[in-house]
Amino acid sequence: QEASHRFALPTSGSGGAVKQENxxxxxxxTDQVKGVMTLQGDALCQAxxxxxxxxxxxxLHFAFREDKQWKxxxxxxxxxxxxxxxxxLMNRDVNYQFKTGLEVLKLMDAVMLQLSRARNRLTTPATLxxxxxxxxxxxKMFTPALPPDILVNFYINLNKLCLTVYQLxxxxxxxxxxxxxxxxxxxxxxxxxxxxxxxxxxxxHVHKVECVVPWLNDALVFFTVSLQxxxxxxxxxxxxxxxxxxxxx
Length: 249
Description:
One of its GO terms (cellular component) is synaptic vesicle. It comes from Vidua chalybeata (Village indigobird). The protein has one domain. The protein is built from 5 helices and 10 strands. The chain has helices at residues 2-7, 73-90, 101-123, 130-134, 214-245, and strands at residues 21-27, 30-40, 43-52, 59-64, 70-71, 142-143, 150-157, 160-170, 193-196, 199-212. Strands 1, 2, 3, 4, 5 and 6 form a 6-stranded antiparallel sheet that branches. A 4-stranded antiparallel sheet has the order 7-8-10-9.
């Protein structure tokens, strides 16, 4: 229940809308990328990014269009899984009596599966290929439009909101480099190559900035505690079952 409450954030005012929270994304020691993100539940409703190009120190600025917001599927999925765990526990009559220890064990297994899936959605970001990032709807979110040599990706990693910016350069047909397209990854390194729109690109620079989202941290702690409680109940039932089945000669 406590984990579930973290995903249904407290409202501000009486309008009933989930409150907006602002986060500054940056890394110490470098100012290549700075971002200010506004998170509203499972949606990034505003993003403001400054990027300093290393070639010429040109400063680029781009922000979400006012009519756009980006859903963070990881948060959405985690919330759905924890709500499913609660449903499994609560969908019986208040006077229901469990008949056997095995019945409880099966219920705990089902609940633990949902809790594990909820936690894994936050701890395991999706692996994407660079063409998948390039063709993502995220690239259409910004004004002014992103330059063709810039890719961005947002994701959740544990308790952090992460922004990765890839700077690209076009690989000329006359290049002597062997073209080897990169596979799927959470974070691609400089030198990764890919083909998109009949053009070949190579990643020249990668910038990752992040910030901690406190309520995601709380949710992860509650997932761990919940799983421990489920396991303790299973252990107790196993002990009592073995005692109950014991028949001395």
